[in-house]
Amino acid sequence: MKPEEFKKIREIRSEQVLLSMARKPESRTIFCGAWDGAVYPFDVSEEKPAPKPMEQHSGYVTGVAISDDVMVSGAYDKSLTWWDYEKRESIQSFKAHDKWVRGVEISSDGKLVASVADDMVCRLWNVRSRKLVRELKGHESLTPTHFNSMLYCCAFAPDGLHLATADKVGHVVVWEVATGKQVKSFEAPVFYTWDPRARRHSIGGIRSLAFSPDGAKLAVGGMGKVGNIDHLGGKARVELFNWEKGEKLGECESGKFKGLVERLAWHPEGDWILAGGGDHKGYLIFISPDGKKTLSEEQLSTHVHDFSLSKGADRIVTVGHQRIEIWG
């Protein structure tokens, strides 16, 4: 589908604020991590889904990822939980980090899960054995002004050979998955705003990453510079890099919407980049594959915390504040 052809098909209400989601391709069920510490399975084929909570965490569930028969979630309580999602039962839960787990991703072959947290460490785990494979440490724990930093996101390359991580101050690292070697790092500082006068506080950071289908380019998402750092007032922003060279290829800021780009995804043929996020309201923004202009911008009724794009790039499911929206 072309970007301008997408329309909202359906809206599903939820009693919870939904912070993350995972979906087995083409499945009718989406699993949503919520702010109450539970994971909720929504059958989107039902007229009025009434999901029963899968309870395990004790804080915001900000990462959910799924493979063939296993789901992994990560949360504010510093833990990771492995689930048998067909039975809606937890397999194992344990403390995986020393601080808030911000993101969880599974490699395309389903063998590794990566978790990132505010302890500034990325950890790789064996999906089957649930054992730690290695730690990746390449992000500073403090910002240049000596405040705690955050490690918000990670993304596997489509072939699974590389993994990218990115933090609050705009530092990006690309790792060789097989060895844990740091192969490239570069900076995207516009995503970070520090107020040295009125608040002595900061906001922003890189919140989303996505490799292009050929693995050669890396899209980086967040928001631009902020005037009043008490609000998500920066323009929705995406930058595109040739990661092997650390060279910026393009940058794009929304002409309509403000707030954080929480999730990025590429069209499977590389035709466009999709960004989702928001401030008090939400958006979906389609961006040209060179990263230099918007192709279409759609407003949603609520902040988009996460979304999934179907394999055929003809359906989008978004989750956010008490709403799920389906576009196609």
Fold blueprint:
Layout: E1 8-22, E2 29-34, E3 38-43, E4 54-55, E5 61-66, E6 71-75, E7 79-84, E8 89-95, E9 101-106, E10 112-117, E11 122-126, E12 132-136, E13 151-156, E14 162-167, E15 171-176, E16 182-187, E17 192-195, E18 201-204, E19 208-211, E20 217-223, E21 235-242, E22 247-258, E23 260-266, E24 273-278, E25 282-287, E26 294-300, E27 304-309, E28 316-327
Antiparallel strand pairs: 1-2, 1-28, 2-3, 3-4, 5-6, 6-7, 7-8, 9-10, 10-11, 11-12, 13-14, 14-15, 15-16, 17-18, 19-20, 20-21, 21-22, 23-24, 24-25, 25-26, 27-28
Describe the structure.
The chain is an all-beta fold and 328 residues long. It has one domain (3-17, 98-327): YVTN repeat-like/Quinoprotein amine dehydrogenase (Methylamine Dehydrogenase, Chain H). 0% of the residues lie in helices and 55% in strands. It has no helices and 28 strands. A six-stranded antiparallel β-sheet has the order 4-3-2-1-28-27, with no helix packed on it. It is globular, with a radius of gyration of 18 Å. It starts with 7 loop residues before the first strand and ends with a strand.
